[in-house]
């Protein structure tokens, strides 16, 4: 049954509708069974008895997706599908392998499922038995994110690693090339909320909104990332990953997000190479936090990153999963897997010609 709202200009004469109170009670009963999003525009959100509606759900702090991103993302997805259909993993892409799992260096512009299929074919060719039923993705990377992926070879190992990731026992580092005003900080930690907006896009929410429900989506979850600047316009000291840099303890700046960020649109735009340390594992976490800090990742059109820069067109965002470190699910020994830096990161460590 579809219930149409009553127009304020519509008057119901008592001679035509002698039992108005009965009809009103019936409408209220039926509307109570409808989803809040349907009744939102007909209910006074300021009423003490008003249910949770769009008017009083948490509001996202980061901006909506730019209009240009839809067309570009569709084009990139089509290109990635064509590329993935022809992709085959090389032995040189394997960073580590034992009888329980394998770490590989995923290239940009290839889907995770393609990597899994390619590993299955590679193992079938090498040992002659069907291994695809026991292969699992321990972690996932976005289509255009390159770097370390771990693939397990048994259900038991997969379950243990899944638990390690969900309980935040895995240390991760990423490298990103951002465009924006050079930050005044060298290290920073940002804490915020994370969730889907009413249109289904991932957005930054206030830290105080964590735990609050969202319309037709899971509640707002916590999200925390630490960053350190490695270079600005090629100037700086690129720090090799060590046990000390894997766990930055002394950050100069802490941001707890409660309101929209203010970015000077007229400020100079610099090339900023950063290392990111995600403490949680939310979808698009680093990309969202870079956007909030006013230095979106180059090529990340979904989160306000430039599509064209200095005459070049970028077909994907420049984010690289540099390392993963965790306790081996079988031996108990701490293992660390590191992927070589991508080609776009090397020029970012050289002073640019002015």
Describe the structure.
This protein is an alpha+beta fold and 354 residues long. It has helices at 20-32, 36-39, 67-86, 112-127, 155-166, 243-246, 285-292, and strands at residues 94-97, 101-106, 136-137, 146-152, 171-180, 187-196, 202-205, 221-232, 253-256, 270-278, 308-309, 312-313, 319-327, 334-338. 31% of the residues are buried.
Give a quick precis of the structure.
With 354 residues, the chain is α+β, with helices and mostly antiparallel strands. The protein is built from seven helices and 14 strands.
Which key phrases capture this entry?
354 residues; alpha+beta; twelve-stranded mixed sheet; two-stranded antiparallel sheet; globular; disordered N terminus
Topology readout:
Elements: H1 20-32, H2 36-39, H3 67-86, E1 94-97, E2 101-106, H4 112-127, E3 136-137, E4 146-152, H5 155-166, E5 171-180, E6 187-196, E7 202-205, E8 221-232, H6 243-246, E9 253-256, E10 270-278, H7 285-292, E11 308-309, E12 312-313, E13 319-327, E14 334-338
Parallel strand pairs: 4-13, 6-9
Antiparallel strand pairs: 1-2, 2-4, 3-4, 5-10, 5-13, 6-7, 6-8, 8-10, 11-12, 13-14
How many helices does DSSP assign?
A: 7
Mean pLDDT value? 83
Structural class designation: alpha+beta
Multimeric state of these chains? Answer: single chain
Low-confidence stretches: 1-18, 22-28, 30-50
Largest sheet: 12 strands, mixed
Rg, alpha carbons = 25 Å
**Which of globular, elongated, flat, extended, rod-shaped describes the shape?**
globular
Q: In percent, how much strand structure appears in the residues? A: 15-25%
Cα end-to-end separation: 67 Å
Helix content: 10-25%
Strand segment tally: 14
The helix/strand series, from N terminus to C terminus, equals HHHEEHEEHEEEEHEEHEEEE
